[in-house]
């Protein structure tokens, strides 16, 4: 994909560390192939041919020992939507 990302880091803790970070970006799909998940086949090229817009929020400090099998994780939550097609109705 090709994309431009805009982000910000927000707030500080008592130790003068950032509390969390935000990001938002649009991305165009430059290549893809079908895949299967849960017994269904998906093709992002057909589902979102014009790309996506995504936004998310993440912690700025890794958490150790909270997820079995990983030494540390960074909590993150985000959402994405397909970019519409001006050339097609609906």
Account of the protein in words:
A hairpin with a 7-residue loop joins strand 6 and strand 7 (72-73). The protein has 90 residues and is mainly β. It contains one helix and eight strands, in the order E-E-E-E-H-E-E-E-E. The mean pLDDT is 83. It has a four-stranded antiparallel sheet, with no helix packed on it. 4% of the residues lie in helices and 52% in strands.
Helix/strand layout:
Layout: E1 2-12, E2 18-28, E3 35-37, E4 40-42, H1 44-47, E5 52-59, E6 63-64, E7 72-73, E8 76-82
Antiparallel strand pairs: 1-2, 2-5, 3-4, 5-8, 6-7
What oligomeric state best describes the polypeptide chains here? single chain
Secondary-structure element sequence? Answer: EEEEHEEEE
Largest sheet: 4 strands, antiparallel
Q: What's the tally of helices? A: 1
Number of strands: 8
Strand content: over 45%
Instruction: Note the overall shape.
Output: flat
Brief summary of the model shown:
With 90 residues, the protein is mainly beta. It has one helix spanning 44-47, and strands at residues 2-12, 18-28, 35-37, 40-42, 52-59, 63-64, 72-73, 76-82. Strand 1 (2-12) and strand 2 form a beta hairpin.
């Amino acid at each position: 994909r090709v994309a431009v990302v805009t982000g910000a880091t927000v707030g500080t803790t008592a130790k003068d560390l950032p509390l969390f970070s935000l990001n938002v970006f649009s991305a165009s799909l430059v290549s893809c192939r079908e895949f299967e998940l849960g017994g269904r086949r998906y093709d992002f090229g057909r589902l979102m041919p014009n790309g996506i817009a995504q936004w998310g929020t993440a912690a700025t400090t890794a958490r150790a020992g909270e997820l079995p099998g990983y030494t540390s994780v960074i909590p993150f939550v985000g959402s994405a939507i397909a970019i519409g097609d001006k050339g097609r109705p609906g």
